TrEMBL record:
UniProtKB keywords: Metal-binding, Zinc, Zinc-finger
Any coiled-coil regions, as ranges: none
A GO molecular function held by the record: zinc ion binding
PROSITE patterns, alphabetized: ZF_MYND_1, ZF_MYND_2
Domain MYND-type, first and last residues per copy: 244-280
Top-level taxonomy: Eukaryota, Fungi, Dikarya, Basidiomycota, Agaricomycotina
Protein name per its UniProtKB record: MYND-type domain-containing protein
Cited InterPro entries: Znf_MYND
Top-rank lineage group of the source organism: Eukaryota
Biological source species: Mycena indigotica
Amino acid sequence: MLGRQEVLELLKSMGIELPRKTKLPDAELDKRLTKALDSAQYLSRVIPDPPLDPRIYPSWFENPSNAKLLDGVRRHSFGEASLFAEGKDFPLYGNAFWDLRQTVMGIGNACDTLKSDELPPIAVQDKEGLSGIVMRVLEVKEFDKNTPIIVLLYRHDVRSTVSQEAIAWLRDNRDEGRSMATVTATLKEQELLLRLLKQNSRRIAKKYQPKRLSTESAFTCSFILPVGPLTAKDTAKYSANNGCTICGEPAKSKCSRCGVVRYCGSVCQRDDWKAHKALCNQLKGARWHRLTFIDGQQLPSIPGAVAFTWNKFDIVQHRVERLEKQEQLVADEPPENTHGSSTFIVKVQLSSSNARGPGYQLLQKQFTPSELEGSTMLIYDQKRVFEVTVMRDGDRASFDAVADVVRSKGERGLKVFCWAVRTADWTVDICLDHLPDWQNW
């Protein structure tokens, strides 16, 4: 069982940031880690209704059009892809979640390299040999052309208590002439991998009974799916804090000077003052304008029209699949409020008759250049979880007040960064004074 601090560190490695003195119960933190690992495997795509029965899927290796398993388990976002194109890669042994993704690719590479009549036994261990996970890949199944399912048996041991069964298993594999693949993994990474394997072991159909070696009676059957970065929406969801900015407890008051940042009481407010002081001075007495928006995926004034948006947090494979299927993105519900009532930075971008892209091409067919110029504004946060469109026809006074600031202070008079607060499902308040520094999104 992982300790509280270990769970917090693993969540942080996945990009999930919680209040620095969070008082979320251990059970809730543990639940968030479970859900985050499921999301990193995009589990709901493959197993919408557990359990998983590997027998119903074809073999990955029997389809000649499938990529190598290494490429099949690789998952990355558009932002990461741009780094890879520049010849950069993840730094090793500094982030447990990045290392986990590398290990899954290492397992895939071992299956590609050592595949014969039997898939290889694999040892995942740290450099010092303090802890290790031994596994034997039973079979690799094909969920779809981009998604393999690696079915395996595994066992975990630490050096101080290596079991006789594990020693016998290693000896039997050696005596049978099976090549053993070794993957180096830090202790924290092993904790994350073990957690993933344990979660997935509970999702294997009980009627699936693979053939075991005589030394594998104590091994656990599980599976591994491709592991990639969390989507922006998932990261925001698991980081969500609608309470005190310091501890996450229910907020009972706001800062009396700026009226924005929320606290559970005077203790947390005093604790935060040093960090909050600069922002508080900026927001004190600032002008705020309320804007009513529509979902950013919908193209305004064109019934039923939708737009595909691309950003660095999108997962390459799944985004491509969505485009291939031409799925419509019409939203009947407002964007999820992952910021609660806390301030956050948004980019405000005015429409222009010179803009490019499929969305604007459709708008240009509906409106004259003069009608299109400054008729809408796009507002979004860093990860585009909140991405909305505001129409000038909705509330011209508030729209024009914000647009004037964009034109006078923004880059090329088209875009500027502002402080924002969600005030209702379909409204957002924008601060027009003391704009934040330019953000490199």
